[in-house]
Amino acid sequence: MRLFVISRHGESTLNIEKRVNGDPSVPVVLTERGRTEAKLLGQQIAHIPLDLCIHSRFSRTRETAAIALEGRNVPFEEEPLLDDIYVGELEGRTLDDYREWKSAHTRADRFPGGESLDEAARRYARAYHKLLERSEERMLVLTHEIPLRYAINAADGSDDVDGPTHNLANATPYMFDEAALSRAVEQIEHLTN
C-alpha cells in the first residue's frame, strides 16, 4: 500500500507573532517548541520506512524535515506547489489583518498582489496529483496548515475545503493512502473550478 504522511511544519517564530508569510525568500525559523515538535514527529514516524521527503520552499518545512529525519537516509526534494498561500501585500501583516481581508472577499478574489484561495487550492491539488504520479511507495510531505487542511477536508468529502477540520496542530502526521489522496485531489478540483 502506498502511504503519504503529510504534516504541517513545527511552530515557527511567525506563528508566535501571529503574522502571515507567503514568500519563501523570507527566512523564518522554528521556535524551541517547534524544534521539539519536529523531534516528536520524527519519533512518531520512526518505524515507517520512507523513500522520500518532499517539502515546500519555506525554510520552516525544510528545518522540520531535517530534525524529524535526523540520522535517517531519506532523500529530500523541494516542491513549490506545496508553498503557503502567496498573500502579496499582506506579507508580514498580522493574522487578524489577513482574516479581516479574507472575511470581506470571496475565495476567488486575489490577495492584493498575490493569489486567491481558490488558485492556491488548485495549486495544492496539482501538488498532490504530482505526488500520486511518483513511483515512491512511502513519502513524508512537509507543508503548511492550509494545504494539509484542504487535503483532509476534501478527502473526507466535505463541501468546503476550509472545514470542518480547522486549526491543525504543528508537526502532526496525517496518513493518506493512495485512494484518500486521490479523493482529495478530485474534491479540491471540484470545489474550486
Notes on the structure:
With 193 residues, this protein is of the alpha/beta class. It has a five-stranded mixed sheet. The model has no long low-confidence stretch (mean pLDDT 97). The protein has helices at residues 13-17, 32-44, 59-68, 95-103, 117-133, 145-155, 178-192; strands spanning 3-8, 52-55, 76-78, 138-143, 174-177. The two termini are 30 Å apart. 41% of the residues lie in helices and 12% in strands. The relative contact order is 0.22. Helix 6 crosses helix 7 (178-192). It has a single domain (3-192), classed as 3-Layer(aba) Sandwich (Rossmann fold), CATH 3.40.50. The longest helix is centred in the middle third of the chain and has 17 residues, at 117-133.
**How many separate domains?**
1
- CATH topology, what is it called? Rossmann fold
The main pleated sheet reads as: 5 strands, mixed
Instruction: List how many beta strands DSSP finds.
Output: 5
Shape: globular
Q: Assign the CATH architecture.
A: 3-Layer(aba) Sandwich
Derived from helix and strand composition plus strand pairing, the structural class reads: alpha/beta
If helices are DSSP runs of H or I spanning 4 or more residues, what is the number of helices?
Answer: 7
How far from one another are the termini? 30 Å
The sequence of SSEs as H and E is: EHHEHEHHEHEH
Poorly predicted ranges: none
Portion in beta strands: 5-15%
